[in-house]
Amino acid sequence: MTSSADAPxxxxxxxxRVLILSCSPHTGGTTDAVARVLEQTLSAHGGLAETIxxxxxxxxxxxxxxxxxxxxxxxxxxxxxxxxxQRLDAAHTxxxxxxxxxxxxxxxxxxxxxxxxxxxxxxxxxxxxxxxRRPARAVLCAxxxxxxxxxxxxxxxxxxxxxxxxxxxxxxxLLRGAERPADILHPPALARIEAMGCEAAGEGLRLxxx
Length: 210
Ligand SMILES: Cc1cc2nc3c(=O)[nH]c(=O)nc-3n(C[C@H](O)[C@H](O)[C@H](O)COP(=O)(O)O)c2cc1C
What we know:
alpha/beta; 6-stranded parallel β-sheet; 8 strands; globular
């Protein structure tokens, strides 16, 4: 069975202004706490926030079979990846929240990212539907407090993934010393997360009216 990654976006759920893609496998961890703060900030600033918790969805990792090279925009797997890509397509703006695991994205996020190969193949084929590019942001949580290159791999991978999906990455929020929720639920860190939420809410509202 195959699935189409370029089918028109469905009506349900309603077009979000800001989609939060929360990407930790850990229930109740730091990334979930960041996503909650973002949701609250977005609603307080008139944004319509929708959160996707990646771990709640059945997404098989890419097996590199080449099917999407031969049939751009489609995949051999009929799981939830195509539907998730459609929800990303429907967002006016996106925030990806993720932990750093071994200097990169956690496995399930990387698995989802690799599934964007079908979108990359579609774009290369010149048959991708024309869509305006949209802004995206990333919030990354890592336990270490130092290390110049701590976020480098995650940022490079995310930038490439988001570009493939038609998003331009804005300045990321990089949270160090963020091992557990208590490490970000204090005023200085909260202020930085809320500031990103405000920015995204403003941008989402503006883009919705364009
Ligand atoms: C498998 C694994 C690998 C990790 N690797 C790193 C790392 O390379 N650098 C770092 O600073 N923290 C690392 N951490 C710590 C997490 O980034 C940190 O605890 C984060 O807050 C976890 O977020 P979560 O609870 O939402 O998953 C790792 C944690 C796990 C479970």
